[in-house]
Amino acid sequence: MATERDGAVGLGDVLSVVRTHGPLTRADVALRTGLGRSTVALRLEALAERDLIRPAEGRPSTGGRPASTFAFNPSAGVVLAVELAATNAHLAVTDLDGTVLEAADSAIAIADGPSTVLAIVERLGGELLRALGGRRRRRPLAVGIGVPGPVEYATGRPVSPPIMPGWDGYDIVGKLAAAFDAPVLVDNGVNLMALAEHADRWQQADNLLFVKAGTGIGCAIVAGGRIFRGSQGAAGEIGHIAVRDHDDLCVCGNVGCLEAVVGTVALVRGARARGLEIDGPRDLVELVKRHDPVAVSLTRDSGRVFGEVLAALVNALNPGVVVLGGELATAEPFSAGLRELVYQRAAPLASQHLQIVPSQLGDRAGTRGAAMVAIEHALDVAALAA
Ligand SMILES: [Zn+2]
User: Fold this and answer.
1) pLDDT of residue 233
2) pLDDT of the residue at 58
3) Ligand 1 centroid from CA 314, angstroms
4) Do both 248 and 315 map to the same domain?
5) Span from the CA of 293 to the centroid of ligand 1 (angstroms)
6) Which residues of the chain have pLDDT under 50?
7) Long-range pairs, 352-356, Cβ under 8 A, ≥24
8) Spatial CA neighbour of 361 closest among 325, 334, 322, 333
């Protein structure tokens, strides 16, 4: 049981119920947290001192006099959210509800290495925070960043990320914490996208897979409503699963990896070999939309190869929902080929109620998820107590 002598006990719970259910009266908060009335009053006072809650419109109590109610104050601070992909960076500054206040995109090459890419993040992030003007605090309460590769969760360091040369073991946390004077949380970008899609649309789905099909191939696993990371953080690294009857050389050094066969780099190369004059994956997706037969057939074949691997994942994990993200997800023949193989090859019990759906958040999913983890960290009881 909570005691009033311990000033932090229940602080997180009180903040959490006001955030989720507010505006609430003291009595509502006591009822929902199980804390005593006097403890609730003290915690509300402590949170108000930190500007995290504020008095809301009163509502009439039974006696006719308005009871004081309290609401979460999302303007108490901001967080910086960053998503790095192979060829672009998305940045957003959000309030503590995740509402985007400022945002910017930039073309990058993740393969240029951490010094170059993080210098761009520092410059753009600084510009976004300054653009808040006098309205808000310019120092973010936390920074969340997603990268396109495996991250050792305990340290936030990328580990042998195949499409990120120069980033192996790099201290992203240290670099950005010094730049923004804030705690930094690093994760594999697909995990952040999965968190965002789950919170946005699929909260009722306890078990969900988010698969990203673009330059890199990634997968995040939501199990029991939470991100499943495995022992070190490598769970979901599906890009280098070997596929049948292919011997394409992969950036990782192996041959026949899923990413080397169906990633956009391979697709664009294959399309050019078949005579299509295209600059990159976007052109290919455009040709697909215009029903170019070669582009349609190539992307459908890619979807089928991906679908065979996905069927194995569906058998192993039995998700209720598979969310498709990444550039290829918007190409209809890709998702059609993928569905065909999943429903053909996955066990009936695993596939009969399975929904395969496109990402709702598109290229905003990464920053949305990065903002979510930054906000949760900023509001963590430990952070409050510190
Ligand atoms: Zn590989």
Assistant:
1) 87
2) 58
3) 21
4) yes
5) 29
6) 1-5
7) 353/320, 354/314, 354/319, 354/320, 354/321, 354/322, 355/320, 355/321, 355/322, 356/321, 356/322, 356/324
8) 325
- 343 shares its domain with 369: no
Check residue 251 and give its pLDDT. 86
CATH of the domain at 312: 3.30.420.40
Buried b (16+ CB within 10 A) or exposed e, 56-92: beeeeeeeeeeeebbebbbbbbbbbbbbbbbbebbbb
Strand partners, 315: none
d(CA 238, CA 212): 10
**Residue 135 C-beta-side C-alpha neighbours within 13 Å:** 12
CATH number at 31 reads 1.10.10.10
- Residues in CB range of 360: below 8 A, 6 or more apart: 197, 200, 201, 323
* Separation of CA 376 and ligand 1 centre (Å): 34
Q: What is the 245 CA–ligand 1 centroid distance (Å)?
A: 15
Based on the fold, state whether residues 206 and 355 are members of the same structural domain: yes
Interval between CA 356 and ligand 1 midpoint (Å): 25
Q: What pLDDT shows up at residue 68?
A: 85
Task: Tell me which residue range forms the domain holding 287.
Answer: 202-359
Residues 234 and 249 in one domain: yes
Exposed, middle or buried by CB within 10 Å (0-12, 13-18, 19+), for 170?
buried
Q: Among the three residues 46, 72, 98, which one is the final residue of a domain in this structure? A: 72
How many domains is the chain partitioned into structurally?
3
**How much is the pLDDT for 382?**
58
Residue reference for tokens 């049948």: 244
* 1 inside domain: no
Q: In the block, which residue shows the tokens 């089928």?
A: 304
Domain-located, residue 4: no
- The C-alpha atoms of residue 168 and residue 210 are separated, in whole angstroms, by 24
3-state secondary structure of 327: helix
175 and 224 both lie in a single domain: no
- Report the length, in residues, of the chain: 386
2 falls within a domain = no
Specify whether 232 is located in the same domain as 93. no
Secondary structure E strands in the chain? 24-25, 53-60, 66-72, 79-84, 88-94, 100-107, 143-147, 151-152, 157-158, 184-188, 208-213, 217-223, 226-228, 321-325, 355-358
- In the reported structure, the alpha carbon of residue 234 is separated from the centroid of ligand 1 by a whole-number distance in angstroms of 14
Answer whether residue 281 is part of any domain. Answer: yes
Distance CA 239, CA 258 (A): 5
